[in-house]
């Protein structure tokens, strides 16, 4: 079984990977689904870059592997938060990392008798293997997806971050964060998270997203603010934009 590289696909690698896994960009730059193209030419192009397309990896998210990623000197709090800000602009691959890292900080192993790799709160299990398409998971990171489900896919994200390092935010990332905070502040009382995600999509705060990515980006922002104030501290909706402003100083 060939293992996927633990890195984010580069720009020149996206073409064949997107064709194989049914993604494409529209004329406006947004992400959408596409017809699959799994002919020999596409497979050969992806394989030439070292990506095992269509293959699943059977593996167990061992505690030791997570601890190795977590102990890396990479994980200074400001660096992780700054990577999220960079993800809003020049480095979409890092919108997920604050969520992945947050999970490892507060995860606790289940007893070995629990045969599940799904989470309950921040808990996880190494009791059984899981099968994952790691190549597609890393492709989705390159395209800017972020989410707080399927935690067995967080480890490839963390391993890629350790391998490649974390990016610093640019002016574009900070500008988009400021725009997002202003949008949140302007919402009427009672706005739901899904409603905020739709408002964010209409305003095109983050470029090149599909209908789900704005919501995932908001999950990352919520995790970032929670990281700033501590997971034990409640974050009221009125104080959220004020707390998020602190990210602009990174």
Key features of this structure:
single chain, about 250 residues, mainly alpha, two-stranded antiparallel sheet, two-stranded antiparallel ribbon
Report on this model:
The protein has 250 residues and is mainly alpha-helical. It has helices at 11-20, 40-48, 63-71, 77-87, 97-105, 134-142, 154-164, 171-186, 193-203, 213-229, 240-244; strands spanning 23-25, 31-33, 57-59, 108-109, 123-124, 130-132. It has a two-stranded antiparallel sheet with strand order 1-2. A hairpin with a 5-residue loop joins β1 (23-25) and β2 (31-33). α3 (63-71) runs parallel beside α7 and α5 (97-105) crosses α7. The longest helix is centred in the last third of the chain and has 17 residues, at 213-229. The chain starts with 10 loop residues before the first helix and ends in a 6-residue tail after the last helix.
Mean pLDDT: 81
Q: Let me know the largest β-sheet.
A: 2 strands, antiparallel
How helical, in percent, are the residues? Answer: 40-55%
- Sequence stretches where pLDDT stays below 50 over 5 or more residues: 110-127
Number of strands: 6
Number of helices: 11
CA radius of gyration is 18 Å
Given helix and strand content, the structural type is mainly alpha
Task: Report, as a whole number of angstroms, the end-to-end distance.
Answer: 42 Å
Q: Given the C-alpha coordinates, what overall shape results?
A: globular
Q: How much of the polypeptide forms β-strand, as a percent range?
A: 5-15%
Q: Within the largest sheet, what's the order of strands?
A: 1-2
SSE string, helices as H and strands as E: HEEHEHHHEEEHHHHHH
């Amino acid at each position: 079984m060939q293992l996927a590289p633990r890195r984010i696909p580069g720009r020149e690698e996206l073409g064949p990977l997107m064709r194989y896994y049914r993604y494409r960009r529209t004329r406006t730059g947004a992400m959408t689904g596409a017809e699959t193209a799994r002919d020999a030419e596409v497979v050969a192009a992806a394989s030439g870059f070292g990506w095992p397309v269509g293959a699943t990896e059977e593996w167990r998210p061992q505690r030791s592997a997570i601890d190795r990623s977590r102990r890396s000197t990479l994980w200074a709090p400001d660096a992780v938060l700054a990577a999220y800000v960079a993800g809003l602009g020049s480095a979409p691959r890092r919108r997920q990392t604050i969520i992945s890292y947050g999970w490892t900080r507060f995860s606790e192993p289940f007893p070995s008798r629990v045969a599940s790799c799904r989470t309950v709160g921040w808990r996880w299990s190494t009791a059984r293997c899981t099968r994952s398409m790691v190549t597609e998971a890393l492709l989705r990171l390159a395209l800017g997806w972020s989410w707080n489900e399927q935690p067995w896919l967080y480890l490839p994200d963390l391993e890629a971050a350790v391998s490649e390092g974390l990016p610093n935010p640019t002016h574009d990332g900070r500008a988009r964060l400021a725009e997002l905070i202003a949008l949140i502040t302007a919402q009427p009382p009672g706005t739901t998270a899904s409603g905020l995600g739709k408002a964010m999509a209409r305003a095109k705060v983050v470029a090149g997203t599909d209908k789900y990515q704005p919501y995932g980006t908001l999950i990352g922002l919520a995790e970032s603010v929670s990281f700033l104030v501590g997971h034990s501290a409640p974050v009221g909706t009125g104080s959220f934009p004020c707390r998020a402003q602190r990210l602009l100083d990174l």
